[in-house]
Amino acid sequence: MAAGLYIHVPFCRRKCPYCNFYSIAAEPELLERYTQAVCRNLRHYACAEPVDTVYFGGGTPSLLSPAQIAQILETAADCFTLSPDTEVTMEANPAAAAPEQLRRFRESGVNRLSFGVQSLSDSQLKRLGRLHTAQEAVETVCAAAAAGFDNLSCDLMLALPGQTPEELEQTIREMTRLPIVHISAYLLKIEPGTPFARQQIAAQCPDEDAAADLYLQAVEQLNAAGFAQYEISNFAKPGFESRHNCKYWHCEPYLGIGPSAHSCWNGKRFFVPSSAASFLEQPVQTVETADGAPCTLEERLMLGLRLTEGVPAAWLAEKKAAVERYCKLGFLRRTGDRVAFTPKGFLVSNTILAELVL
């Protein structure tokens, strides 16, 4: 079983008002020190472990230069057994990716880009604090395709302040016409401590029932456009599911490098504290153990049921009555010897999992 590498790039030009991920302001000197810190940590963990996915998440990984990305990938290739067809994903901000830079990222070894588009409504993008316009997003995605990327993904946010079914329908229609093969669609969640929370933006957002309707609308429209749902929030054309993210849901090993990165490695779950200063200064990243015995049956159930492929029915043998009840209610479905959530079931999955897993 091949592992994955996750590289957290904690830098942004400006923090979005809804975001609670760890990130700091980008400065050229910090970007170079960060690159060197990632490389020395990769050398620390070096082993013969086969690796077939590398994911640069953030933050805004596209703030690193193509040369810095190439250096990290070359170090990873020296430290692990990288598969010839390794999926190398980089998250990118449409406002921070010029056409020539995209071409150079492709040459550096990146073969999959995930753009934080979020919406193709200029009014919504402004409300979300995004630095790009709808037209700039479209142009950047098309430029990435012209640069040789055939594995492109866009993020889409649902239940935005004042969002209507018509507005969402238009964004999805325009987004699915782009040269992309994957869409991640997330319901906006107002996180404590964010500017959106302090501004009480939740009062302007669709209520729970309206948000559920928008989610189901997105599922239906994306499926009709050829983007099949394979996870609660992820949709892809056949064969273009995110191989890296599937490792999380299949309880496969992955190593995280960088402040706030998480790992499931050598039989333990651990994470790096959210401190860029510590990560840059320490010879090896400090880690804290989150779980010394991960991937229990309960955890495999919780993660596996995020996927539309579901889990073996045998895993839920002791909950057969509950499974049958939720199947009759339309929240679960049985396909052969597997059990999975329906789109309607995904909306209340936490409640149902509390009964199925405990």
Write a structural description.
This protein has 2 domains: 3-248, TIM Barrel (Alpha-Beta Barrel), CATH 3.20.20; 298-357, no CATH class. α1 (28-44) packs parallel to α2 (66-79), α2 runs parallel beside α3 and α6 runs parallel beside α8 (208-224). A 9-stranded mixed sheet has the order 9-10-8-7-6-5-4-1-11, sandwiched between helices. A 3-stranded antiparallel sheet has the order 12-13-14, with no helix packed on it. 38% of the residues lie in helices and 24% in strands. The protein has 14 helices and 17 strands. The chain has helices at residues 28-44, 66-79, 99-108, 122-127, 134-146, 165-175, 195-198, 208-224, 243-249, 276-281, 297-304, 320-328, 343-346, 349-357; strands at 3-9, 11-12, 24-25, 50-58, 81-92, 112-118, 152-158, 182-187, 228-231, 234-236, 254-257, 262-265, 268-271, 288-291, 311-312, 332-335, 338-341. With 358 residues, the chain is an alpha/beta fold.
CATH topology of the largest domain: TIM Barrel
User: What is the structural class?
Assistant: alpha/beta
Question: What spatial order of strands do you see in the largest sheet?
Answer: 9-10-8-7-6-5-4-1-11
CATH class membership of the largest domain: Alpha Beta
Portion of residues within helices: 25-40%
- In terms of per-residue confidence, which ranges show pLDDT below 50 for 5 or more consecutive residues? none
- How many DSSP-defined strands? 17
